[in-house]
Amino acid sequence: MRLANPQTENGFTKIANEILEALYRRAGKLSGTKYALCLLVIRLTYGYQRKECHLSLREAAEALGVSEKQVKIACDELLNKHFIFKETQPPKGTISRKVKFNKNYDLWKF
């Protein structure tokens, strides 16, 4: 049996401890899919030293191992609660939108 052996030399996501602490303090108020979607957006933005990333429902569903419907519901709730932001209209011919994580946790709603 092969054991996991993650190493920072293989990549890591640099994020302020304050953001992680704010997120896990509120984790009990988020469903598993919403929490996982927050972490995915953090990974795709902070993990690549970007403020925003392109993400489609299909890509998120595949990454999280859930249905597109579950991602859509979670995404809509996270948008309404100001955990994430997205551009209003995706560019013509694309199915993904730019999204970013709202690091100002004082604006998060429950």
What can you tell me about this protein's structure?
- The N and C termini lie far apart (43 Å).
- The chain has a three-stranded antiparallel beta sheet with strand order 1-3-2.
- The chain is 40% helix and 10% strand.
- The model has no long low-confidence stretch (mean pLDDT 92).
- The protein has helices at residues 17-25, 32-45, 57-64, 68-80, and strands spanning 53-55, 84-86, 97-101.
- It has four helices and three strands, in the order ααβααββ.
- The longest helix has 14 residues, at 32-45.
- It has 110 residues and is an alpha+beta fold.
- The protein has one domain: Arc Repressor Mutant, subunit A (Orthogonal Bundle), CATH 1.10.10.
Secondary structure layout:
Elements: H1 17-25, H2 32-45, E1 53-55, H3 57-64, H4 68-80, E2 84-86, E3 97-101
Antiparallel strand pairs: 1-3, 2-3
Helix pairs in contact: 2-4, 3-4
